[in-house]
Design brief:
Elements lengths: L1 H6 L6 E3 L5 H6 L7 H15 L5 E3 L2 E3 L13 E5 L2 H10 L2 E4 L5 H10 L15 E4 L3 H23 L16 H7 L2 E4 L8
Parallel strand pairs: 1-4, 4-5, 6-7
Antiparallel strand pairs: 2-3
Helix pairs in contact: 4-5
């Protein structure tokens, strides 16, 4: 990351999230209930590494080089869609990028409770995937099945007991339903209308 920071001349930030798919955690033998602790450790480690100074990691002295391009290195921003993720971001990260607008108020509340300046209104709207095509109808025939697979896969994962339905995806029965929601849009380069 520090190499990329230097190559970009300080124009990169990092977004970190805890994850939510039980099968992925199982693949690595990591219990889901360790997410908060592990993401907290990762964020704190990254922030220490990005200072450019030596720091301790699990009892060992570490010094990463090259030094960051800008003082303090890349911002470490947390992503997420739940109240605990939002409040954790306020405590340990440089910012928060929610995947659903509803999570922002928890972040905002926690920042203020901690004595920080009000971060203001949510920086995002509803999640949308936008693609460009000369013919949106034909593009829906080509890309629509992939959009449907994405929203149904994520929707299924998010609705599992491990996630309590928190997140921007929900299953759709067919392309017509998905297209009518407006969360996936295909527009022409000069178009401003929904398709």
């Amino acid at each position: 990351m520090l190499v990329l920071d230097n190559l970009s001349r300080g124009r990169i930030d990092l977004i970190v999230a805890a994850g939510y798919i039980a099968a992925e955690f199982a693949t690595y033998g990591v219990p889901m209930n360790e997410r908060a602790r592990r993401v907290t450790e990762a964020v704190k480690t990254l922030k220490a590494a990005f200072t450019g100074e030596p720091f301790e990691y699990r009892g060992r002295a570490v010094h990463l080089t090259p030094a960051p391009f800008r003082p303090g290195g890349p911002a470490v921003i947390m992503g997420g869609s739940s109240e605990p993720a939002a409040r954790r971001a306020a405590r340990i990260a440089d910012g928060f990028l929610p995947s659903v607008p509803e999570a922002w108020e928890f972040y905002r509340d926690e920042v203020r409770k901690l004595g920080g300046a009000d971060p203001g209104a949510c920086p995002i709207g509803d999640l949308q995937t936008i693609a460009l095509a000369e013919n949106p109808d034909r593009a829906w025939e080509q890309m629509g099945p992939f959009f449907l697979h994405e929203t149904n896969s994520y929707g299924e994962w998010l609705s599992s007991d491990d996630n309590n339905g928190a997140g921007p995806y929900s299953p759709a029965t067919d392309l017509a339903e998905l297209r009518s929601r407006g969360s996936y849009r295909i527009i022409t380069p000069m178009s401003t209308s929904r398709s």
